[in-house]
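Hi all, a correction to my earlier message: I attached the wrong file for ABC transporter ATP-binding protein. Here's the right sequence:
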Amino acid sequence: MDKSIIDIQDVTKRFPVGDTEFTALRNINLKIEKGEFTGLIGPSGSGKTTLLNLVGALDEPSDGKILISGKNVAAKSDEESALLRNEHIGFIFQSYNLLPVYTIFENVEFPLLLQKMGKEERKKEVMQALEWVGLADIANKKPSQISGGQAQRVAIARSIVKKPDIVLADEPTANLDSENAYKIMDILKKLNEDLGITFLFSSHDSKVIDYLKRIISLEDGKVIKDETKR
Ligand SMILES: Nc1ncnc2c1ncn2[C@@H]1O[C@H](COP(=O)(O)OP(=O)(O)OP(=O)(O)O)[C@@H](O)[C@H]1O
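and the right structure:
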């Protein structure tokens, strides 16, 4: 049996542009195993974000299919896609997407509100996630009171609070200085090693690339190289 957690089968993605179409991804075939720490690398416009969005069921392939733990993402209704995202996939973006009027605690708690979970258990899970990123002591602050590095750590806590199988990280260090970028990558590597979360990054930051165990290079919507470090 195929043990891939992400199985991308002959995926093509076209976007309508005026009267014509633009092909952002062409016949992509990739298998990612549970526990991988892998990145999509390539110049701006090569299709990295488009592919992450398809894997995260935020968008659908034009052709081909994507299986997450053996289940076809694209064949699902919007409601089922939302459920799949909610239960199995966490997202980290380059802009941290925190809700400014809520506290750090409430921002991390947010994904759990969609699940049937009591208040005390929610509190335990939120504080555990904040401890993972070293921010338990600032749970009551608002996003405007913390630094960019801390905001990205809050976003990481939010992405892992549901204990997802997969975290998709789109340029997670793009807005950070070197010190904070390394700190973020150390945290993500530890989450990968200790919790077994599968990571798929998109990046052109060498600081991210240095940490990756497998580097998939994209160019003009095609995979041009796929290397695993020994
Ligand atoms: N909704 C859309 N409609 C039309 N074209 C799109 C759409 N989304 C993406 N594209 C095009 O698809 C190509 C791939 O974009 P994508 O954002 O995936 O690249 P990327 O490798 O993530 O780039 P970057 O590093 O700049 O984020 C680009 O040429 C982009 O303009």
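Sorry for the mix-up. Residues 130 and 136 are 5 Å apart (CA to CA).
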